[in-house]
Amino acid sequence: MPLEPESAKFLDRVRSLPSRRPGPGVSVDEARDATAATADWGRPGPDVASIVNVEVGVPGGSIAVRVFSPARPRAVIGYLHGGGWVIGDIAGFDAFARALTNASDCAVALINYRKAPEFPFPTALSDAEAGLRQIADDVPGPAGVSALPLIIAGDSAGGNLAAVVARRERDRRLSARALPRLAGQILIYPVTDHDFDTASYRDAGNQLFLTRDAMIWYWDHYAPGDVRDDPDASPLRAADLRGIAPAAVVTAEYDVLRDEGEAYADKLADAGALLARTRMAGQTHGFANRYGLLPGSAELIGMIRQFVDGFLRRSSESARKPGNNEGTAAPRPNTGRSFSMKLAERLNRLGTETAFAVSAAAADWAGRGNTIYPFHLGDIDLPTPANIAAAMDRAVRDGKTGYCPGGGIPQLREALAADVGARRGLALGPGNITIHPGGKPVITKFIQAVMNSGDEVLYPNPGYPIYESQIDYFGGVAVPYRYVPDASGFRIDLDRLRASITPKTTVLIYNDLQNPISAESTQQEKEAVAALAIEHDLAVLSDEAYFDMRYSGESTSIASLPGMAGRTVILYTFSKKYAMTGWRLGAAIAPEDVSDVFAKLSTNNESCTTQFVQEAGVEALTGDQSGAGAILATLRGRRDAAYEALAGTRGISLAKPEATFYLFPDITDAVHAKGMNGMQEFADAALHATGVSFCTRLHFGRPQPGEDRLYARFAYSGLPAEKIREGLGRLRQWIEA
């Protein structure tokens, strides 16, 4: 994807500075001055329960360790900051460490190792190990902190040090110089080698915050000459990583260090030591500590929490101190039990439905005995209508539990053709219908069927995150189009959409009655979108998951407009109208030749959609509709309760949508009134203060250029009206306090 917009602005500011950044002919003092010039960019970090500064004695002097702790830490992260081993200090990571402490529920200890060229290799490494020992032995702070699992982490040069410390910890487990036992390692765009001729080093598009010339300059100051061949300087050159602490590796798309970081991840995977890896799309080097300035920092902090979750699942709280370590100093043979498959590179492009990450945070908070008001996930807590459940039971009793046609059972295809055709004014037959296990597979199969590698696909942002994930995964180029606020809610920025179309654009994804913002196109807007599709010969996916979830008015489909039926695939789902989210039943309505392809893909992927579930789908469409009507009436009451509560809260503004089960209020003034640094900090604080859990705009794609307002999504489908009023009442009291 393109360089993230805030990062581009940041780089413009950096280029405007009079100070000289590291590179040929630049002195160390000049480079340090350039770093200092950006130190106050961004915002202060949040308060934490405690901060303790420790001086650690090392040969020839001392180093500082600053420990940030929450009230009840579950682990300790020893963090080694970046700066090419030459520049920077822990003060530049203060805001990042504060935010990470609160988000991860871990104590975060910043280790201020000494810098080259005054202290060349291996001084920084020795200092890192001394700081780690101090953390493990007797860090002051909350009771019990020194008995917690220990994780080593670092970015850039700090990631280099963290990787080496983790390997040396393995090698010394039975020696007199043993290091504290590690539960995991987190390596953020790490330096792992001194090969300046990798593809990412040579790519002109990567010469941004960190350049090839700058890295040569850093290496010359830290480890000049052949000493850099030592695996303690270049960890990629280590012979064997088996037995090392489990690792998570994060790289940036536009970074000269990208390839060596991913090569090290490959080596960890070969050794059975890789917990997770991710390449952060649209990011360049140096975003980690730019908390409150670059959105990648907040995203990374959320990832680190998940990494810690993974480490702790793998790790018991066996003693970390040298005398209690088990195992051997030499790595164990790689038996089948420890084998780790080398995963496909395309998995680096696979995203996820980020609302589930919010679910994990809410579940964790609930697990500590707190009341949760779950507005974050668009699930429905209402029962599926009884006649539909009875039809499934009947089908099971009748033995309809075997394989069935990949395209779906004939009676459901016929029922859908009749229902969808009548409601949308389309002439449809069973040949236009294929049945799938939910709506998501329709997105995947549509992308597989109509998009070639390198094709550009227009998709809504903010929007359902699976669109971008599948475009990227199958090798397309995801091109976002945006919405802008108006009196009725939001409208598509048609000028921006039109300007985004190039000769490589082949596909448009259109989601009327939109998740997350509940936007509904006017007839004029829908016709304008259709005209662009026809003019540029685009295939269209019309995601109509909420077509029947409306409280007034009547839905129409873009497929019913002249010239659109033959180029449009409609995504249909039973999940919303019939409260069947977990049943996994959906359909694609498409031209017959495309339906044949979808059926073939289904045969290859899942063979078929569960037969007795399809039988229930027939009853849903052709049987008693009172249950669906009752669901809609209940959701209307919940919509009204949620809207009234939010609209009456100071600092929040929103329109009242007539469809979906989401509200997408502007929370900008509320965030600023609470003195927060951004949407995610506001959401985290709201969860802990009120129990109200919700997604932010950041969960539905990266903010686009020109966005200066902050939004949140509240799904009201999973709470009764009285709980909606109770939870949002608590939120209002907290905001207005």
From TrEMBL:
Residues 380-727 form the Aminotransferase class I/classII large domain. Residues 79-288 form the Alpha/beta hydrolase fold-3 domain. Keywords: Aminotransferase, Pyridoxal phosphate, Transferase. CDD domains: AAT_like. Residues 1-15 have a biased composition (Basic and acidic residues). It comes from the Bacteria. Its cofactor is pyridoxal 5'-phosphate. One of its GO terms (biological process) is amino acid metabolic process. Residues 1-40, 316-338 are annotated as: Disordered. The active site is at S156. One of its GO terms (molecular function) is pyridoxal phosphate binding. InterPro entries: AB_hydrolase_3, AB_hydrolase_fold, Aminotransferase_I/II_large, AspAT/PAT-like, Lipase_GDXG_put_SER_AS, PyrdxlP-dep_Trfase, PyrdxlP-dep_Trfase_major, PyrdxlP-dep_Trfase_small. Belongs to the class-I pyridoxal-phosphate-dependent aminotransferase family. PANTHER family: ASPARTATE AMINOTRANSFERASE (PTHR46383:SF1). This is Aspartate/methionine/tyrosine aminotransferase/acetyl esterase/lipase.
